[in-house]
Predict the 3D structure of the following.
Amino acid sequence: MSDQPLVQPVSTVTLTFNDTNETIELPVLKGTDGHMGIDIRKLYDKTGFITYDPGFTSTGSCYSGITYIDGDNGILLYRGYPIQQLAEKSDFIESSYLLINGELPSKEEKADFAHRITRHTMVHEQLSDFYRGFRRGAHPMAIMVGVVGALSAFYHDSLDIDDHEQRDVAAHRLIAKMPTLAAMAYKYSLGQPFIYPQNKLSLVENFLNMMFAVPCEPYELNPVMVNAMDKILLLHADHEQNASTSTVRLAGSSRANPFACIASGIAALWGPAHGGANEAVLNMLQEIGDKSQIKKYVERAKDKNDSFRLMGFGHRVYKNYDPRASVMRKTCHDVLNQLGIKEPLLELAMELERVALEDDYFVERKLYPNVDFYSGIIFRAMGIPTSMFTVIFAVARTVGWIAQWREMIEDPSQKIGRPRQLYTGSPLRDYVPINKR
Ligand code: CMC
């Protein structure tokens, strides 16, 4: 049974079909905050009508007590706590516990959770054979889609989704193994040996160590990089019913195993309109190259005949500054200062932001920088290659995917997700033999 307060009917709306004058009364539901929703579950049964909403701009697919976004006011809450407070005072492990369990942990609970995650960081040795099957130049997201799905072939003792204990173990395994698998994808692209996780290191320290250490010399962890990576993971950990999370829920609604569900989330995250945007932002900034070119690219972004968009700008829900982008912008400055790096792309990004935010096109459409606008610049300062940006997003978002998947599995009203369609194909017709076509 899920622990969130259920949505309550607070009133009704009446839908009138003008052609026939028939009416139907539909309940109006209210959660603890945010939009009210018209409950259309009985619409089809009672009227034979479906609703049409491609892109789901007005469709709620579930109720959820995990993450809340107020897009007009630029607010993001994890289990009620503002993201800015968590970014400043919490850390990735603690916020992961919060997202998954609903409450901040006590000291003991946090230590126990961190311990459990640490004990699951190693992956089955045979998984490394999968990597060897990929071409060296493979995109690491392509590798991640494959190897995370393949986890279900290795951990048969955590596939029973009806067993609470097994769900827990699968959750811990996924959170713990994602950094290991991500670092292995990076090492494979370099042709360097895989580095095993070490239990004396935290999740973030381990991740950086597995990415950057080599067996022939000691690797010193830089606390600036550890802190920055921790913050980046925390900021990306969950974001309500976005494309990849909805994909995880949809896959999970068929009662597929959690490893397969998370692999489907990784696939959905990869696209440049979603998690792939951080990689696209850096490529875009490099293509713009110089402040003198900004106007030209802003004009291109506004031109409906040009497919170019300002990557890292705009959001389906935020019609204000993405609160994660504000934290990211500040972190970006801090990291560059602390590492003593002068990064011309940061100057370029800030100027691009200034020009766009003064332009009527962006103002009228309420297009602001999103979380991806500044993250790539921090990654670059940390020596992380562009192709790994979205992989790191996937490492972080695994926590949200798991929390949302578990919430769905534990919800007694959960059903297989199965949208309908408005058919636009040919009406019924008879088969024509090939010699008569
Ligand atoms: N550059 C130029 N125009 C844009 C942009 C942009 N980045 N984003 C939206 N618009 C325009 C769009 O052309 C449309 O104009 P009009 O009303 O004249 O047709 C209007 O703004 C509304 O945009 P939309 O595409 O209908 O909005 P959406 O909610 O379907 O798409 C989005 C949201 C994030 C896919 C889109 O803003 C976009 O493609 N942004 C760039 C990619 C990006 O940064 N993605 C990361 C999102 S945040 C991280 C994550 O959640 O994964």
Residues 55, 239, 242, 273-275, 277, 301, 309-316, 365, 367, 370-372 surround carboxymethyl coenzyme *A (CB under 6 Å). Residues 164-190 form the longest helix (27 residues). DSSP finds 18 helices and six strands in the chain. The chain has a mean pLDDT of 94.
